[in-house]
Write a structure and sequence with these properties.
By secondary structure, the chain is an alpha/beta fold. The protein contains twelve helices and 20 strands. The protein has two domains: 245 residues, Ribonuclease Z/Hydroxyacylglutathione hydrolase-like (Metallo-beta-lactamase, Chain A), CATH 3.60.15; 143 residues, Flavodoxin domain (Rossmann fold), CATH 3.40.50. GO terms for molecular function: electron transfer activity; FMN binding; metal ion binding; oxidoreductase activity.
Length: 398
C-alpha cells in the first residue's frame, strides 16, 4: 500500500498537504522508467468560512484520496476546488471528490483547463480565471498566474500569502522520506530526480521554463508547494534556480555523456578506445550501452544530457539504418533535451558507412553541433581516427 501523508504544514493560513507515494508505478506517462516512484501532492487551505482544495491525485487512488481528505476536513464542507493543471495525475480523483462533496462547489481553472475538464470528465461548471487575476476567498487573496506549457497549455499556479501552489512546476520523481527541503542530504539526493522529471516531462517545453521563471520572479515566494515531490519551505529559490539551470543546459565541466549500442562488440571496441582517450584528456565520461546484456533506461540517459558538456554517440548499422534503440534514444534526446552542445558520432559498418546518413539525418535540424562523423569498418579499428575525433572535441571545449 502506498504511503499516505496528511499533515498540517502551515498555521496561518492553515494549510495541509495530502501526499501519496506511488510506489507501484513503473513507467510515468506509460513511457518513462521511474523505479524511484513519484508522489502526487494536493493541498487543503482552511479559511474563515471556506475550505479550498488545490489539485488532487491520480484516479486509481481516488478512494485513498477521499479517505485522506476526510481525515482533515468533512468533504461536504469544501467550498472551492482549484485545478492548477488537468493532467489526470492531479485531476483523476476529481470526479469521486465531487461525488463525495455532494453539493455545488466552485471549481476554478484556466480557460484551457475548463475545456479539458469538460473533455475528460464532462465537468462544465467551471469558473475561469485570467492571468494575474486575484480573488478573495475566505478573507484571503488568491492570485492566479498562467504558466502555459508547464506542463500543458492549461497550467497555472496559485499564489497565496507568499506560498506558491505550483503543481507540475517544481516537481520531481522519487519518494523522499520527508515532506520538505529541511534536510540537506535528502535535497542533494532528490535533485537528480528533479532533473530527470524536468527533462522527461517538461523537456519538450523547456523554453517555457525560462519564461515561467521570469514571470514568477515578480512574486515574493516564501514557500513552493508542488504537485510532486518535496515541498520547498527553506529555500524555494534553490529549486527555481535548478529548473532554470536544467532548461538552459548549464554544463558541468568535463562531463561527456557517451551512448552507444553494440550487438557483437565491434562498436564497443571503438567506444572503449574513445572513452579511454576522453579520460586521458581529463574528461569524465558517463557511459550508457545497449547490448545483448544491458539496456539502460532512456529516462536515465535523458537525465544526464542537460549538464553534459558534450555528447558522443556510437552506432552500429542495422538493416541499413541505426540500431532501433539508438534511434529511439536519439529521437527522445532531440525532442526532450535539444541543447546547443557539441556532438561526436562514431559509426561501425560491415559493407558501407552509414552513420552520417542515418544519425546525421536525425540530428541535422537540431541545436546540436556535430563536430565529426567517424566511420569504422567492422573490426578494422583506426585508432588514429578515433584519437582525432576526441582531440577535436577537446579543442572545441577549451
Ligand atoms: Fe504531474 Fe503534467 O502532470
Amino acid at each position: 500500500m502506498p504511503k499516505i501523508w496528511t499533515e498540517r504544514i502551515f498555521d496561518d493560513p492553515e494549510i495541509y498537504v495530502l501526499r501519496i507515494d506511488d510506489d507501484r508505478i513503473r513507467y510515468f506517462e506509460a513511457v518513462w522508467e521511474i523505479p524511484e516512484g513519484i508522489s502526487y501532492n494536493a493541498y487543503l487551505v482552511k479559511l474563515n468560512g471556506a475550505n479550498v482544495l488545490i489539485d488532487g491525485w491520480k484516479g486509481n487512488y481516488a478512494k485513498e484520496f477521499i479517505d485522506a481528505l476526510s481525515k482533515i476536513v468533512d468533504p461536504k464542507e469544501i467550498t472551492h476546488i482549484i485545478v492548477n493543471h488537468t493532467e489526470p495525475d492531479h485531476s483523476g480523483s476529481l470526479p469521486a471528490t465531487l461525488k463525495t462533496i455532494g453539493h455545488d462547489v466552485e471549481i476554478i481553472a484556466s480557460n484551457f483547463g475548463k475545456r479539458l475538464l469538460e473533455g475528460f470528465y464532462g465537468i462544465k461548471d467551471v469558473t475561469v480565471v485570467k492571468d494575474g487575476e486575484e480573488r478573495e476567498i475566505g478573507g484571503k487573496k488568491f492570485k492566479f498566474v498562467m504558466t502555459p506549457w508547464l506542463h500543458w497549455p492549461d497550467t497555472m499556479v496559485t499564489y497565496l500569502d507568499g506560498i506558491l501552489f505550483s503543481c507540475d512546476v517544481g516537481g520531481g520523481y522519487l519518494l523522499p522520506e520527508i515532506l520538505d527541503d529541511s534536510n540537506e542530504s535528502v535535497v542533494e539526493r532528490y535533485l537528480p530526480h528533479v532533473t530527470k522529471y524536468i527533462v522527461t516531462v517538461i523537456g519538450h517545453y523547456k523554453n517555457y521554463i525560462l519564461e515561467g521563471a521570469e514571470k514568477l520572479s515578480s512574486l515574493k515566494i516564501k514557500a513552493l508547494l508542488p504537485g510532486h515531490g518535496l515541498i520547498w519551505k527553506k529555500d524555494p529559490q534553490r529549486l527555481l534556480n535548478h529548473y532554470v539551470s536544467v532548461a538552459k543546459g548549464d554544463p558541468k565541466k568535463g562531463k561527456v555523456t557517451v551512448i552507444y549500442d553494440s550487438m557483437y562488440g565491434f562498436v564497443e571496441n571503438v567506444m572503449k578506445k574513445a572513452i579511454d582517450s576522453l579520460k586521458e584528456k581529463g574528461f569524465t565520461p558517463v557511459v550508457y550501452k545497449f547490448s545483448d546484456e544491458e539496456r539502460p533506461a532512456i529516462s536515465e540517459i535523458l537525465k544526464d544530457i542537460p549538464d553534459s558538456e558534450a555528447l558522443i554517440f556510437g552506432v552500429s548499422t542495422y538493416e541499413a539504418e541505426i540500431h532501433p534503440l539508438m534511434r529511439f534514444t536519439l529521437l527522445e534526446i532531440i525532442d526532450k533535451a535539444n541543447y546547443e552542445k557539441p556532438v561526436l558520432v562514431f559509426g561501425v559498418h560491415g559493407w558501407a558507412p552509414s552513420a552520417e546518413r542515418t544519425a546525421g539525418e536525425l540530428l541535422k535540424e537540431t541545436k546540436f553541433r556535430i563536430l565529426s562523423f567517424t566511420e569504422i569498418k567492422g573490426s578494422n579499428m583506426d585508432e588514429r581516427k578515433i584519437e582525432e575525433a576526441i582531440s577535436l572535441l577537446k579543442k572545441e571545449l577549451e
